[in-house]
Amino acid sequence: MAAHGSNYINAEKGLASWFTTLDHKRIGLMYMISVLTFFLCGGIAALLIRGELWTPGNTLFDATVYNQVMTYHGAIMVFMVIIPGIPAILGNFLLPLHIGAKDVAFPRLNLASWYVFMTGAFLAISTLFTNKIDTGWTFYTPYSLKTSTAVVSMVFAAFIMGMSSILTGLNFIATVHKMRAPGMTMLRMPLFVWGIYSTAILQVLATPVLGITLLLIAAERLLGVGIFDPALGGDPVLFQHFFWFYSHPAVYIMILPAMGIISELITAFSRKTIFGYTAIAFSSLGIAAVSFFVWGHHMFVSGQSEVAGIIFSFLTMLVGVPTAIKMFNWLATLYKGSIQFRSPMLYAFGFLFLFVIGGVTGIMLAVIGLDVHFHDTYFVIAHFHYVMVGGTLMALMGGFYYWLPKMFGKMYNEFWARLSFVFIFVGFNVTFFPQFILGSMGMPRRYYGYLPAYQSLNQISTVGSWLIAIGFLISLYTIIQCLMSGAPAPANPWGAKTLEWTIPSPPPHDNFDVEPIVTAGPYEYR
Amino acid sequence: MNGLAALMSPAQASMALPSQGTLLAAEFDNLYAFILWASVISCAITIGGMIYFALKYKRRTNTDKTAYITHNTFLEFLWSFIPLVIFMVVFGWGWMIYNKMRTFPDNSLEVHVYGHQWAWDFTYKSGKKVANEFVVPVGTPVKLIMTSQDVIHSFYIPSMRIKQDVVPGRYSALGFTAEKTGDYHVFCTQYCGLNHSSMLAVMKVVSKEDYEKWLQENDEGLTLAQRGEKLYSGKSCVACHSLDGTRKVGPSWKGLYGQKDHEMEGGLKLTVDDDYLRESILLSNAKIVKSYPAGVMPVFQGQLSEEEVNALIEFIKSLK
Amino acid sequence: MSTGNPAAHSDHTHHTAHHFRDADHEFVTSKEGIWLFMVTEILMFGGLFVGYFFMHNRYPEMFAEGASHLDWRMGAFNTVVLILSSWTMALSIHFIQTGRNDKATKMLLTTIACGAIFMVVKFFEYKAKFEHGLLPGHFFHAHEFTAPNLAMYFGFYFCMTGLHGTHVLIGMGLMVWLLKRNLRGDFNEHYYTPVEGVGLFWHIVDLIWIFLFPLLYLVG
After folding, report:
1. Which residue of A237, A335, A444 is in closest CB contact with B187?
2. Do B119 and B196 fall within a single domain?
3. B281 lies in which domain range?
4. What is the pLDDT at residue C220?
5. Mutate which of A266, A371, A372, A445 to test chain B, going by most B C-beta atoms within 10 A?
6. Residue B126 has what pLDDT?
């Protein structure tokens, strides 16, 4: 029984107690600090990219540096922010709470996952100081085999971080299967858990293929194995198949947890039961399953067979259906609800707005005849930023503001949180909507210089990036101010119904004093 | 790049697409317009619905009662089925357009394309070789047979709405029939290293007679310096060396010949004479000009004939 | 809990971790964790198998030539050794479950010995390749060969058997750890989860070899 007034933060004192903790909540916070730091690095790279693209020629630096900056922006954001992001931070913190458990299935493995992640991250960052890579985050061969930069270190770093992702996914699957409180059937779990669960399945099944692909690049560079290098009889397009076999499911690793958060936010801030629980839960699994069969839509013009292209285009259409189902179910949840515009809900609305744009442009790209024109242009960049930033990052921000009171026991200043939303939302659209136009006008991606006709749209986009930066800085200020002087948060500031709101803010070390007995679903707002 | 056609014709400006270079580009634009409108309508419904519900069902008191609606099978079926139908329609339509893009008539005029870091070389069946600027006749099916000499590149003609990766170790193909004469941008669209964004080409579509005339043209009648000028773009010196004094990856050629006290890395100072230029061209890494990167310029030993080297040197001499 | 076996007499009664309901809950959860990890191992090797199939289809003569340098008898012997070791591993679990920890110790030692035999045979195989210059990629310097890119075959050979061999060594290390814990009296008929886990790992390592052997040694 936890001493009265003690919680997971003050239960043990000293830095060493954090680095040896087995508490999923502390591990979630440790991931939060790491991931946010890496987000800052990737964000600076983004500002540098947009700064350089203010003019068609040399604005801040030359093409050598630009190619490195764009590579690190991608690699850091993908491997060190968006893929770990929601599962490692909010998944770790909330999963046991949501299912009424004391911890995840394998707490020591959980801590090990964090150390493994940090090892890979440090190796990746170290390349910034040794021999910055310039391959783009996708490491396409043969360029990645020939460039004399620290590719081997970076692929090992990504391999190590992939191991962390696998171990986290494995932990979460076992947790969902085996650690649920009595009465918590699968269909009574919060939809956030369904999101994390489907993601964990992808992490476990897809990441090993990335692992072996990265090892093969290293083997190719170190030993000259010859599998991808045409000069040695290898096939560079084979690399793309291997790479995208993981990297397509990876984008669903990025979005499924975000969709889970949106279900939580919409129900809590409409005080209404979710519309179509079963459909949303199974659509997460459906998206995860279909995601394994669509990787070739990244390769329509790569030289893969035309028949394969048609099949991939068709299957990609199928993945759009469960996604549409979710969107409509969320909207239907709003109907006859009682909607409160607190900042988490603003981020949820932002998600709905931006994700639908990202989604329809995804359909455009899935149409093979259209993709031929749009592939490798700014249209694609706009699409994936709409879904990854407009989708995942918005949901992460909404989730932060929703669960911050639970995590720290303090309320934040609503005005600043809302202001941050406005800057991020407006800034995001100013940055990325023009990029759809640039892409359809033909501007290719990864371009250091561009035709003068593209300049005004590029400049608008750059101004947008500054607005986004301001928005995130405001959020950083809001969180720091909250931690330092926020008002004490009650156990359930939002009146929500999932299990984490039944325990104090911040939660005690062992989560539940008495194991909860669950008798109903998670959204019984009646 | 003077004298190029506008990137966008006014008619296309509303959809932000480049000018339509082929009939297929027009078909592409029709499909795109359809899906764009379908998307706008979908967004209006979803975002409009969201805003409407948000305002209509705004919380009034802290004890508001909300409806307990768990599902509605009919609605759920409807909003699964209708999107599926729309997706299938655009899938099929896109498939048809893709088929047309990938159908190359037997009587196509074939041009061989070689992509390499960082320029495009074109060889015609007659043996004529050009670089970065190539000419095709209007109204004739053209087939580009492409391969790369180093890493993956991609050949993209925005006005024709087509692109295809150019891969080392295999051939890939692009086909089109240009409808209008004019100059069209070509971009490399697969990241290929340092000068990926300057690996541009221009496709000049001319009348059939002009094409035949151009095909007959050769270098006879050109002075040595003029031949050097053609090599300047043909061998992609232009990618790294400017003619107007601008610093690029390599030193500018303006006023280069005859410079005394030209400083190298390591402190050596020399005069830029014919011997120095010859060594710089053929053995690029023997001496590096101070403050410029080593190991970037290709080694042209064995790639240029004596006459070509002379032509380049004469061209450089002419740049005051 | 005493079984009359002196080796089982210990202070190391296993304490179920506090977030589990009981020992059985911990056991089934741990087993699920190991199974999930094994799925990822199979997928990782699977990627290599796919690469192998793809290149084999492209260069069938080259692969046949490469395979002709492998001694299928050594491979078959190693296969038997590994299958035997899976059996002894399973026996060691059985003995712990039935309270005969000293027999379990013998079985663990046998399994480790089998692993060692496997690696020794591997050593001789590799040594023969090195002597003939049949090395991967740019280290290839054989003298008489036909296929120009034969180095690719040996790239696959060394990557696949090397990755597998690394897992054999890891398995052996895990078994030494189990041996230590068994001698210390950590395991009994109520608690043997780590043994079960390592056993599963070892079976998968064996299974992967059972696919590697025909693919590399026989299919050529």
Report:
1. A444
2. yes
3. 224-317
4. 61
5. A372
6. 87
pLDDT value for B219: 67
Residue B153 and residue B150: Cα distance in Å, rounded?
Answer: 9
Quote ipTM for the complex.
Answer: 0.92
Residue-wise pLDDT tens digits, B28-68 = 999 999 999 999 999 999 999 999 999 999 999 888 888 89
pLDDT-derived band at A345 (thresholds 50, 70, 90) equals very high
Identify the residue among C18, C19, C56, C161 best suited for mutation to test binding to A, counting A beta carbons within 10 A and taking the highest: C19
Average pLDDT over residues B64-81: 92
Spell out which residues of chain A touch residue C48, defining contact as CB-CB under 8 Å: 212, 216
B229 and B212 belong to one structural domain: no
pLDDT value of position B2:
27
Long-range interactions of A127-132: CB distance < 8 A, separation 24+: A127/A153, A127/A154, A127/A157, A128/A72, A132/A68, A132/A71, A132/A72
> Does any CB of chain A come closer than 8 Å to the CB of residue C37?
yes
Q: How many domains does chain B have?
A: 3
Characterize the bridge pairing of strands B109-116 and B119-124.
antiparallel
Task: Write down which residue in B101, B124, B159 finishes a domain.
Answer: B101
State how far the Cα of A175 lies from the Cα of A181, in Å rounded to an integer.
11
**% of chain B exceeding 90 in pLDDT:** 62
Residues in C touching A141 (Cβ below 8 Å): none
The span from the CA of A269 to the CA of A275, in Å, is 14
What global pTM score does this model have?
0.89
Q: What is the pLDDT of residue A355?
A: 96
Q: Hey, what's the torsion of the CAs at A369, A373, A374, A378, to 10 degrees?
A: 180
Domain boundary assignment for chain C: 21-219
Question: Could you tell me if B29 and B70 lie in one domain?
Answer: yes
pLDDT classification of C148: cutoffs 50, 70, 90: confident
Q: Are residues B10 and B53 in the same domain?
A: yes
Residues B144, B206: one domain? yes
pLDDT above 70 coverage of chain C, percent = 94
Residue B3 confidence class, pLDDT cut points 50, 70, 90:
very low
Residues B117 and B184 in one domain: yes
User: What is the CATH number for B53?
Assistant: 1.10.287
Domain C21-219, CATH homologous superfamily name and number: Cytochrome c oxidase, subunit III, four-helix bundle (1.20.120.80)
* B189/B283 same-domain check: no
3-state class of B172 per DSSP? strand
Put simply, the answer to whether A441 touches B17 (Cβ < 8 Å) is yes
Contact A364 B154 (CB under 8 A): no
Q: Does domain A25-502 have CATH number 1.20.210.10?
A: yes
Extract the runs of DSSP E, i.e. beta strands, from chain B.
109-116, 119-124, 129-131, 133-137, 141-148, 153-157, 162-166, 172-177, 182-188, 201-206, 262-263, 269-270
Residue B236 sits in the same domain as residue B209: no
- pLDDT at residue A1 greater than cutoff 60: no
| Predicted confidence (pLDDT) per residue in A398-420, tens digit | 999 999 999 999 999 999 999 99
Q: Indicate the DSSP class of residue C80.
A: H
